[in-house]
Amino acid sequence: MSGTSGTYLGMPAFPAAAREAVGNETLRKNLRHATHTIRDKRAKAVAELDDWERLRAAGKDVKDRTLRHLDHYLVQLEESVTAAGGTVHWAADAEEANRIVTGLVKATGQSEVVKVKSMATQEIGLNEALEAEGIRAYETDLAELIVQLGDDRPSHILVPAIHRNRGEIRDIFAREMGSWGRAAPEGLTDTPAELAEAARLHLREKFLRAKVGISGANFMVAETGTLVVVESEGNGRMCLTLPETLISVVGIEKTVPAWRDLEVYLQLLPRSSTAERMNPYTTMWTGTTDGDGPRDFHLVLLDNGRTDTLADEVGRQALRCIRCSACLNVCPVYERAGGHAYGSVYPGPIGAILSPQLRGTGSEVDASLPYASSLCGACYEVCPVAIDIPEVLVHLRERVVEGGTVTRNGARVTIRPAKGHAAERAAMRAARWTLDRPGVLRAGQRLASRTRRVHPKRLPGPGRAWSDTRALPELPAEPFRDWWQRTRGGAE
């Protein structure tokens, strides 16, 4: 993928990006159809389990315990992977991770790699880093393939091409497949079977030729050094078993202590993501084995802001995320704005709390993300590991408004209060002063009710931005205190 259209660099803040997205009727139709279909199927799959809430609590508890002792489990993981024949590399940030991976690929003498769908490699911009070193990365997940061929950006955690319909996908395949390998068949239609067959034929030659595979992982088991990838298409199985060298880039928070913990997550994840009882392909590997699978295995443990996030007692719960995308499929904001508006590989509610913590709130786009929510709480209700996303959103809004000092990649960084919030802070101070003085509040309410006929329909000055998209509430004919005293005859 060349150029800048496939990256998130230079994206506008969420309000501007969302304003443009909601004007795209095709996008909104695609998103509405896809998210409603997935959420309805998920609800049925979850309803099959009588102990869903207990599973959810267990998933939360295991993750919390792991995060509290993450230093211990990471050391154990490294020892287990090494004992099984793998090599562990530690990457403090995206630059170091990219340097490690490109170095490992170049050491094999290869100029192309096949990839399993991976949020971590998207987060660090690995494809662009490989391209800069003359190495071409081929995405093999169907939705990621669509995004790559279209020189596009992912817009969903589970279904990166959710913003595309079948007609658009057919056009992309017919136009671009030939320049990346095997061309699409002549007369390709937009039926799902034909599109899937075109992708299968295109990818098969890459699977059989590739000497290097790159993946992420859904889970890493500390006690055994086992990595786990769950997927639905079989492309992951091909990438994880056929190449001679396998390189896995995984966020440190994907660690679980013991093999038995997988029982919980292998029930929670498929039902929450693909609405299946279990994923069609669950691949597990532990180091290397003679005559079976890759000869060389490298695990790159990625920090990239995770340790800093771990230090935040409220925000750290975002690290429980198992990337199921259930929160995206119920979010009314995501459904209308789409994933690109979030300016990050992590869109939707989880992206609104994860990206500002991993990247900091210093940029305009990251400072805007905690506000990309109505705080309706639907995301919390469906989260399989009970992340209280609304709580973290409010917490991050406070950080944006108040500023302060946080740790970012090992250094103390001062966050300046966001521009445009001066009026909001002044209004909150005025409200606090008024609410502390009952007499002032009483007089203000009576004055407001008696002058309601001359109240404007829109606020003037800075308030115009608020009232342009909201109707000002109508004031009642009399204050509640007056009504109570008149109808009940009691004291205030």
UniProtKB/TrEMBL annotation:
Residues 449-458 have a biased composition (Basic residues). Residues 76-301 form the LUD domain. Residues 448-471 are annotated as: Disordered. It comes from the Bacteria. Keywords: 4Fe-4S, Electron transport, Iron, Iron-sulfur, Metal-binding, Repeat, Transport. Residues 318-387 form the 4Fe-4S ferredoxin-type domain. InterPro entries: 4Fe4S_Fe-S-bd, 4Fe4S_Fe_S_CS, FTHF_cligase-like_sf, Helical_ferredxn, LUD_dom, LutB/LldF, LutB_C, NagB/RpiA_transferase-like. SUPFAM superfamilies: 4Fe-4S ferredoxins (SSF54862), NagB/RpiA/CoA transferase-like (SSF100950). Residues 396-486 form the Lactate utilization protein B C-terminal domain. This is LutB/LldF family L-lactate oxidation iron-sulfur protein. It comes from Streptomyces enissocaesilis.
